[in-house]
Amino acid sequence: MENRRNPRINRFNHRNNNAKPQFRPQPDEMVFGIQSVIETLRSEQQIDKLYMEKGLSNPDIQNLAFQNRVTIQRVPVEKLDRLTRKNHQGVVCLVAQVQYVKLSNVIADVYDRGETPFFLLLDRITDVRNFGGIARTAECTGVQCIVIPGRGAAAINSDAMKTSSGALNHISVCREPDLTETIKYLQDSGITVVACTEKSSRDLYERTTDLTGPLAIIMGSEEDGISPELLRMADNHVKIPLLGAVGSLNVSVATGVVLYEAVRQRSLAVPVQTEE
Questions:
Q1: For 28, 156, 187, 204, which has the most beta carbons within 10 A of its beta carbon?
Q2: What was the pLDDT predicted at 150?
Q3: Which segments show compositional bias classed as Basic residues (predicted)?
């Protein structure tokens, strides 16, 4: 489906129409067994999750996963048995519902269009419905790209697509193997990285909180928030004021609060056009 805000985003998802792989699983399909997983990795279909039994070694799968930038998650055989009762041979993968894009391409395209970068980094958001809700809010607030880690993130499956109300069809998603390297790259690209954390001493609504320029906001996991290493790397930290007895917000709600404060500030920073 064409991105209504960025029609050119489809060039990142370009497929070679001349290539006709023999094995073509459907999005959100579970593929298991060594040869089936190898053929899936060789096809143009992108992989969302790749699970391999601890202690199992298969050079073909490992090399193809490395070439395709797919992180292999080593798990006990019991987890694989819970995923499928069939003969999985120690390896199971889930086919992605979205086509991941390169962050460098997104940044270049945003700057080429004369827009101000507005990105969202999700550090280990594992609940599928939280992720879907966040994606919906991100698309509505004009976020151009959601960045997720290659490991420890929710699967972008049919539940995520449904919860996002189709927003994941309209927003770029980048999967990066190392968010620390991603933050460095964003900063080198002139983008300020702001972490939303209750550990901050700066209130989101303070006058000194500036969310108007090239911006990437980090939101942390449901259990322990943003990783300490990512917190240290962020340019700024902000917290959402909590006035009640409960000590935290749901991460999807918190993301909405921060994104819409950024929208408010950015709308005020745009000069008003008047007719002569």
A1: 156
A2: 84
A3: 1-14
